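Friendly challenge for the regulars: who can give me the structure tokens for this chain first? No prize, just bragging rights.
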Amino acid sequence: MTGWTVRDKAHHVYTFPSFKLKPGKSVKLHSGKGSNTSSNLYWDRGWYVWNNDGDKAILRSSSGTLTDTCTWGDGIGYKNC
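First reply, four minutes later:
Bragging rights claimed.
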């Protein structure tokens, strides 16, 4: 997924580092600070990016092709996409 991006409705953009996601596996993207692992990646922001009351995650390949989106509204404060 190296070079792929995730962005929100406010156009905050995360670019994946050198990273491979194995088939059937998932990764959690955190907007805060931390150390990247095979299952957790960190955006290293000093504030939260995702809005709990509603937002949209947009995934694009390294060539810019729209690959997936995930939208949520007011709820439990997190969503697996």
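The CA atoms of residues 29 and 58 lie 13 Å apart. The radius of gyration is 12 Å. Your move, everyone else.
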